[in-house]
Structure formats: structure tokens, C-alpha cells
């Protein structure tokens, strides 16, 4: 392979089985292994992760986005999409579309007895405001450059930590 071809491959191709995972555990509900696939690529407007959730776990609190859209592709396993106050079954082969806006708070939960594996793809719209309906928090984030981002997590009338009020 030429040097140019090697450079292109490094900037444009990721294999979910070869990117290192980050383990995350926050008992009792949150646990995952995650690979940030788009990190270090030429992508500027797409965030892409490969997530593995153990049985009974979720990766993040129930939330909604004001700017970003998300797409999830279930690759293996079954679980539940908590969305807009409903619990919807999901399975391998499902593609889930989550538009920005208050109509679609969402969370993926592994309600099965086997690992749930899926791709998370999001637009990287900035600035972004997230809302967390279960805890009454919001998070604002953005950056003029990726080296110096800002992030604020608060409740109306007081500051809050990311996990305040979450189960």
C-alpha cells in the first residue's frame, strides 16, 4: 500500500473490533464499553461510537438534544428504547432515528440477559443543550475549537453535577 493510501486509510476507516474500548461503570444502572470510532478521523460533523451494554445496564441518563440528531444501529442483542415516555422493544437490525427537540427524550436500556451492541451516530452540532427530564437538569456545551470546549451542568436556580438526581 502506498503512503498516500495508508494515510487515507488512517483518516477514513475504523474497524469496531480494532479501536480500543473505554470501560465505564457507575453502579447500579450505568455500565458500558465504548469505542469512539470517529475520534482522530477526517470526520468533522459526525460523532460515531460502538457501544456494548451488559444485561440490565444503560450508558447515559434519559435525555434530549436541542441541536444534535442521533441514529442508533442495533447490531446484536435486544433491549428497550425508552423514548417520549414509552418503552419500545429493539432488536438486532433495528435502525433508530432520534431527531433533536423536546418531543424525543431517549435512552437505550439493555433489558435482556445478553450483551446489547450498537452503533451510535450523531451530528456534532454546536453549541448543544441537553435536557434530563428525570432530574430537571440541563447541560450546555460547545467550543470554538475542540481543544478548548466549554460545559455547564445546572438546575434552574443552582448548579448541579452530571449525576445529580439520576438513579
CATH-derived architecture of one domain: Sandwich
Radius of gyration: 17 Å
Structural class: mainly beta
Percent of residues in helices: under 10%
What is the spatial order of strands in the main beta sheet?
1-2-3-10-5-8
CATH superfamily membership of one domain, which one? Jelly Rolls
Beta-strand fraction estimate: over 45%
Number of helices: 1
- Straight-line distance between termini: 51 Å
Largest sheet: 6 strands, antiparallel
Mean pLDDT: 93
Shape: globular
How many strand elements? Answer: 14
Low-confidence stretches: none
3D structure, described in words:
The protein has one helix and 14 strands; from the N terminus they run αββββββββββββββ. With 167 residues, it is mainly β. It has a domain at 20-125: Jelly Rolls. It starts with a helix and ends in an 8-residue tail after the last strand. The chain has one helix at 3-12, and strands at 22-26, 30-36, 46-53, 64-65, 70-76, 78-83, 86-91, 95-98, 106-109, 116-123, 128-132, 137-142, 150-155, 158-159. Residues 52-121 form the Cupin type-2 domain. Keywords: Metal-binding. This is Cupin domain-containing protein. InterPro entries: Cupin_2, GPI/OXD, RmlC-like_jellyroll, RmlC_Cupin_sf.
Topology, element by element:
Blueprint (H helix, E strand, L loop, with lengths): L2 H10 L9 E5 L3 E7 L9 E8 L10 E2 L4 E7 L1 E6 L2 E6 L3 E4 L7 E4 L6 E8 L4 E5 L4 E6 L7 E6 L2 E2 L8
Antiparallel strand pairs: 1-2, 2-3, 3-10, 4-11, 5-8, 5-10, 6-7, 6-9, 11-12, 12-13, 13-14
Summarize the structure.
Keywords: Metal-binding. The protein has 167 residues and is mainly β.
Amino acid at each position: 500500500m502506498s503512503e498516500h493510501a495508508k494515510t487515507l486509510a488512517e483518516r477514513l476507516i475504523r474497524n469496531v473490533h480494532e479501536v480500543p474500548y473505554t470501560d465505564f461503570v457507575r453502579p447500579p444502572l450505568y455500565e458500558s464499553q465504548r469505542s469512539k470510532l470517529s475520534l482522530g478521523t477526517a470526520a468533522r460533523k459526525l460523532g460515531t461510537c460502538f457501544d456494548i451494554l451488559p444485561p440490565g445496564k444503560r450508558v447515559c441518563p434519559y435525555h434530549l438534544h436541542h441541536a444534535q440528531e442521533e441514529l442508533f444501529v442495533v447490531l446484536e442483542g435486544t433491549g428497550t428504547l425508552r423514548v417520549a415516555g414509552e418503552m419500545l422493544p429493539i432488536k438486532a437490525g433495528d435502525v433508530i432515528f432520534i431527531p433533536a427537540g423536546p418531543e424525543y427524550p431517549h435512552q437505550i436500556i439493555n433489558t435482556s440477559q445478553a450483551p446489547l451492541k450498537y452503533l451510535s451516530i450523531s451530528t456534532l452540532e454546536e453549541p448543544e443543550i441537553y435536557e434530563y427530564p428525570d432530574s430537571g437538569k440541563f447541560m450546555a456545551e460547545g467550543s470554538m475549537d475542540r481543544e478548548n470546549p466549554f460545559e455547564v451542568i445546572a438546575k434552574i436556580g443552582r448548579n448541579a453535577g452530571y449525576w445529580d438526581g439520576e438513579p
